[in-house]
C-alpha cells in the first residue's frame, strides 16, 4: 500500500514537472525569431531573463539544431542539458550532475522556416522553489507510517478469521488422531467444515468405512475359527482318552492340550482387539493376582515347580477390567512356569503402586530380544510345540488397553522379572 501510493504520487509529481517544463519550452520557442539568412535568433524579454539567469536560475534552457548542435544556452559551457549523445527524440530526460543534484528536463521540437529545432528546458530539483519533490520525499515518514498499523490490524483480523474457519478442521484432526483398532466406528464430522474441504472429509469417512468392514471381517473370522476349533478338539481329547496305547495316548493328549491353549489364546486376542476399558471401571489387583496364582498352581505343581504370591495383602485398586487383567497375569505366570526349570520357583509380587512383578528362574531374556518377545508369534525356539508366541502379545494388548506398560529385566540371582505397571484408581 505505501509503495503503491508512493509510486502514484511520484508519477503525478513527475507529470506536473514535465507539463511545467513543456510550458516553458513553448514559451522559449516563442522567443525564436527567423533571420533573413535563414538562421534564427533568440530574443528573450528582459523581464523573463531572471528565471534563466545564473543568479536565480529556476529553469535552464538549450536550443539545438536538427543535428544536435547547441545554438543558444543558458549554461556557460554551451552544452546540451541532456547527456552527450542522448537521443533528442525522447520527450524527457533525467541527469545527475557532478555535485549530486538531479536535473530533469524535456525535449520539445519546433519547426521554423522548414528547419527543425529542439528546445530543451530543465529544472534542478534542489532549487528552493521546487517543493513538489519535497512533498513526495516526505510522504513515507509523514504519511506512510499510518498504513503499518492498518496492515497489522488486518493481519490480526486475518488470523482470527482463519482460526475460526479452520477450527472444524482442527477438531477433525483431533478426531482422526483418536481412531484406532478399538474405535473403528468413529467418523469425521462434515458439519461446519469449509466447503472446499468437505469432499476430502467425505472421502476419508468412506475410506474408514471400507477399513472398518475389512477389519471387522478379519476379526470375526479369527473369533469364529477359534470357536469352531474348540468342539473338534474336545471330541479328539475324549477319543484319545479311550485309546489303550498309553505312550501314544499321552503324546496325543499333550498335542491336543497345546492346540487347545493356542486356540484359546487366538480367541483372547480376537476379543481384546475391540476391548476398551471404561473410564470408571476399577479392579482389585491383589485379588486378580490371587485368583491367577490359584488358577495356575496346579500347572506349576504338575511341572515340579513352586509358585508364591508376595507383596500386598490388602486390596490395590487400579483402573481396569478384572477379567482382562486376570488374562494378562495368567499369561505372565504361564510364561514363567514354562521357562523355569524343575525344582525352581515362580514368584508373583503385588506392589501398592499398582505394579505386578512376575519373577522366574529361567535363562533370562537377552537385551536384543526384550522388545521382540512381546510381538505376536515370535518364538526363540520354534521347535517347541507348547509355545506359539501369543501369551506375551496378549499381555501387551491388555497393558495398552489399560494405559499401562509391560517390561522385562534380569533377575539379580538369575532369571527374568516381568513388570506390569497400571494406573491406580
Automatic annotation (TrEMBL):
The lineage of its organism: Bacteria, Pseudomonadati, Pseudomonadota, Alphaproteobacteria, Hyphomicrobiales. It catalyses: ATP + protein L-histidine = ADP + protein N-phospho-L-histidine. GO terms for molecular function: kinase activity. The chain crosses the membrane at residues 143-162. Keywords: Kinase, Membrane, Phosphoprotein, Transferase, Transmembrane, Transmembrane helix, Two-component regulatory system. Residues 224-425 form the Histidine kinase domain. It is found in: Membrane. It comes from Reyranella humidisoli. This is histidine kinase. SMART domains: HAMP, HATPase_c, HisKA.
